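Re: weekly structure request thread

Next one in the queue (118 aa):
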Amino acid sequence: QVQLMESGGGLVQPGGSLRLSCATSRSFFSGSTMAWYRQAPGKERELVARITSGSSTNYADSVKGRFTISRDNAKKTLYLEMNSLKPEDTAVYYCNLKTEGVVVAYYWGQGTQVTVSS
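Done, posted below.
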């Protein structure tokens, strides 16, 4: 099994910051596209941010300018820096790995809860 381990979630006040991490031991990490998704209660799962093996990024409009996705290939770790957090950012955040080879496969972490509240 591919192991994706999210960490860094928790309770934060509006306007605060959190840094999420997603670590894996798999050797193909550096050649894969990584992404963060989130799912809030009563809503569909949505893409938050994505970064390719070449470090090209894109973001959901709702988080542009506030969130930054990055990767450390040496540590085989994906990050999501979240600033100026809003209550509507409250969700379970999931790490996703997509292989970029001829055979495409998706792998998911178990998720980490982010709650933005006073």
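The radius of gyration is 14 Å. The CA atoms of residues 12 and 115 lie 6 Å apart.
Next request, please.
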